[in-house]
Write a structure and sequence with these properties.
This protein is an alpha/beta fold. The strands form three sheets. Strands 1, 2, 5, 6, 7, 8, 9, 10, 11, 14 and 15 form an eleven-stranded mixed sheet that branches. A two-stranded antiparallel sheet has the order 3-4. A two-stranded antiparallel ribbon has the order 12-13. The longest helix is centred in the first third of the chain and has 17 residues. The chain is globular. The two termini are 24 Å apart.
């Protein structure tokens, strides 16, 4: 019987010991974090495809990324870009954790990497081949390359992790849900190590066509891309699409302590709810998100007064930012305006299913460093968005408890609660 099997669910503690990221702000967590704290935007004019047919022509595009630095050339060709990002982030997270598992330990190490859309580039490319040269030219690797769970599958093959292996698909909440479900899996004693987060690479012409048709993306800042993602600002005009991956190494405290691992912080709570309201629009009263926030604090046994930082979903769309503000105010009351709440999407763009992974890293680093990243491009206050959004400049503040929250099409709400590790 393992140490985990002998403990009750409530007794098990889960800690964060490794981080990995590929984002529009650079390759690696250091690049991400240094840019977030300095308020640098990664939003630029799109280079990888012709944007002239679209009314949005900017994004959080990752350029000069070479997947062969992380994978065999043949595997690169067989897999989609969102898998490339996941493998690269996994390598960094494992190295950061100093994790080297024996074969028998890998039976209790799992992978949960979510993706909201999966292999969009594969879908676009193979569909074009089908329509132009016929079905016989469609790749035999098309189906495994496009399915959302394949990032978890390929990363497991790369690492040899043979424990629980899943991929949560909840649109832009996928990465956060994956971390939360990995946490729940560990609390049930089914794994001692989990590699969890999100990866997304839907930034191509087909993806743009879909989101532009929805009139969801920013169109007024094509000539000044760095100013386009402006969560909670009165002149916000839509989200800016991005791509990337963010992964965490989670370990039971017993496992991490036994190997003398560096511990960033504790993951102390996870909850998810549904708005049960609309396929794309958040609930105007913020009911689902509010209940999610209340429940995650109950699970972690903390009060409203204990929350030092909230990393918001903050998409820079009219509805999300307004209704997210409503939800936070309904939970925290008079305290709401005193809690720093920022959207790092103002710098990364909206990484869709990868958002939860990258933004969880922002919370972990805020706890580690005592620095809270700002919401940049906050210039014109919106009377319906009246919280402390950490405007334009990072805030120095001890962070003992941080919440990362995300929402996704379909009405999904997720909250993760991280606490400073106290031994």
């Amino acid at each position: 019987m393992s140490e985990c099997d002998s403990k009750s669910v409530r007794d098990l503690r889960v800690v964060v010991t490794g981080l990995g990221a590929i984002t529009p702000l650079g390759f690696g967590v250091d690049s991400l974090w240094n840019s977030l704290i300095s308020g640098r935007s990664g939003i630029k004019a799109i280079k990888s495809f012709d944007t002239s047919p679209f009314n949005c022509r900017i994004g959080g595009e990752i350029v000069d990324f070479d997947p062969t630095e992380y994978m065999d050339y043949k595997d690169v060709k067989r897999n989609d870009r969102f898998v490339h990002f996941a493998v690269a982030a996994a390598h960094e997270a494992i190295a950061d954790a100093g994790l080297s598992l024996a074969d028998e330990e890998k039976l209790r190490a799992g992978v949960m990497i979510g993706s909201g859309i999966g292999g969009m580039t594969t879908i676009e490319f193979q569909s074009e081949k089908f329509h132009t040269v016929g079905q016989n030219k469609v790749s035999p690797f098309m189906i495994p390359a496009l399915i959302c769970n394949i990032a978890s599958g390929v990363v497991a093959i790369e690492t040899g992790f043979m424990g629980p292996n899943l991929s949560v698909v909840t649109a832009c909440a996928s990465g956060a849900n994956s971390i939360g479900e990995a946490y729940s899996t560990m609390k049930l004693g089914k794994a001692e190590v989990m590699l969890a987060g999100g990866s997304e690479a839907a930034l191509n012409a087909l993806g743009f066509a879909g989101f532009c048709s929805m009139k969801a993306m920013s169109t007024g800042f094509n000539d000044n891309p760095a100013m386009a993602s402006r969560p909670f600002d009165a002149k916000r005009d839509g989200f800016v699409m991005g791509e990337g991956a963010g992964l965490l190494i989670l370990e039971t405290l017993e496992h991490a302590s036994a190997r003398g691992a560096k511990i960033y912080c504790e993951l102390a709570g996870y909850h998810c709810t549904s708005d049960a309201f609309h396929i794309t629009m958040p609930h105007p009263k913020g009911f689902g998100l509010a209940e999610c926030l209340r429940s995650v604090m109950r699970e972690a046994a903390v009060s409203q007064e204990d929350i030092d930082y909230i990393n918001a979903h903050g998409t820079s769309t009219q509805y999300n930012d307004k209704y997210e503000t409503v939800a936070v105010k309904s939970v925290f009351g008079d305290l709401a305006s005193q809690i720093p709440l920022s959207s790092t999407k103002s710098m990364t763009g909206h990484l869709l299913g990868a958002s939860g992974g990258v933004e969880a890293i922002a919370c972990v680093k805020a706890i580690q460093t005592g620095q809270i990243p700002p919401t940049i491009n906050y210039e014109f206050p919106d009377i319906e968005c009246d919280l402390n959004y950490v405007p334009n400049k990072a805030l120095s503040k001890e962070v003992k408890v941080a919440i990362s929250e995300n929402s996704g099409f379909g009405g999904h709400n997720v909250a993760l609660l991280f606490k400073k590790f106290s031994g």
